[in-house]
Amino acid sequence: MFDVPPSEPVPFSETVIEAPGPEGVLQGTLVLPQNRTKPPVVLIVPGSGLIDRDGNMPGIQAATYRRLAHGLAAEGIGSLRIDKRGLFGSARAIRDPNAVTVKDYAADVVTWIGRIEEVADPSCVFLAGHSEGGLVALAAAGKLPSLSGIILLAAPGRPMAEVLEAQLKANPANAPFLDEAMAALARLKTAERFAVDTMPPPLQLMFRNAIQDYWTDLFSYDPAVLAGRVSQPLLVVQGMEDLQIGETDARALAGASDRAELVLLPGVNHMLKPVAKSGFAENLAAYGDPELPLAPGVVGSIAAFVAASCDG
Fold first, then answer.
1. Which DSSP symbol is given to 144?
2. What is the pLDDT of residues 129-176, one digit of tens each?
3. Does 56 have pLDDT greater than 80?
4. What is the bridge-based pairing of β-strands 149-153 and 125-130?
5. 297 backbone φψ class: left, alpha, beta (φ>0; ψ -120 to 50)
6. For residues 32 and 80, what is the distance between their CA atoms, to the nearest angstrom?
7. Average model confidence (pLDDT) for the chain?
8. Would strands 56-57 and 125-130 be described as parallel, antiparallel, or unpaired?
């Protein structure tokens, strides 16, 4: 399946909307195609760290979620892309953006689904979680029986501690402090807290005290187990040039559900951008190129899944 540009652009509206958060508002951007009434709507759940609703983060202007939203609109599919509680447009939702759990993020997803149903009058609603957002989507799915389907984009299929261990081992630059990093991960898995001031600077940032509670909470989830509990249709999309998540993860997720569809995309990286089979540096450079479109097949596979799964 490939993303074929329509002969004429499909007009769409793009509106900032809000939803109630714990202490202040959550904020997102709703995109609705204007060529159909009661369109299906996809809630795009962002990945880890300081990533905004458009899919940008400090030093990496990938615009993945904005491009996904606009690509779906061209297929007659609406979307809502959101800022996580405590960050960017949702900064007022909580005082401390580090004082969060997967359960908190999942609760916000449930809130946003309610808002979509209020303001968009959709024919059906889907969750699309990217990277760590895939885990959040799976955690929320059990509380959303009315969902028409769940879409996992470059999502982990193992507990995140295992994913981080593999990522750290794969980068030769981590060799001088790899043993210390593995020991820190082991301590976090048992909810042990520790000072980081004597660690090498990269580990001080990764394991800083403010986010140790979040790491421990995150490590307690097994995405494949959650995928096995999903009753709705499940689409797993995985790029074959992903430096962070791999085919093994995608197959674990798809294999957990008898309603799953697996799409493996050659030449696609973690941010769903096209890359040649090249080195680490070239792959990372594609992360931060806002002019680089999404890879062929990304929007098309999602649009086909939505069309097949939507009851409306």
1. -
2. 999 999 999 999 999 999 999 999 999 999 999 999 999 998 899 999
3. yes
4. parallel
5. left
6. 9
7. 95
8. unpaired
pTM of the full structure: 0.95
Per-residue pLDDT at 217: 98
- Look up tokens 């898995």; give the residue: 189
DSSP per residue, 38-102: S--EEEEE--SSS--TTSEETTEE--HHHHHHHHHHHTT-EEEEEPPTTSGGGGGG-S-TTS--H
DSSP string, 207-239: T-GGGHHHHHHHHT--HHHHHHH--S-EEEEEE
pLDDT over 90 (residue 6): no
May I ask the CATH class of domain 12-158+221-309?
alpha beta
Buried b (16+ CB within 10 A) or exposed e, 82-107: bbbbbbbbbbbbbeebeebebebbbb
For residue 216, name the pLDDT band (cuts at 50, 70, 90): very high
Structural domain spans, the chain: 12-158+221-309, 160-220
Give pLDDT tens digits for 108-133: 999 999 999 999 999 999 999 999 99
Distance of CA 171 to the CA centre of its chain: 23
In angstroms, how far is the first alpha carbon of the chain from the final one? 23
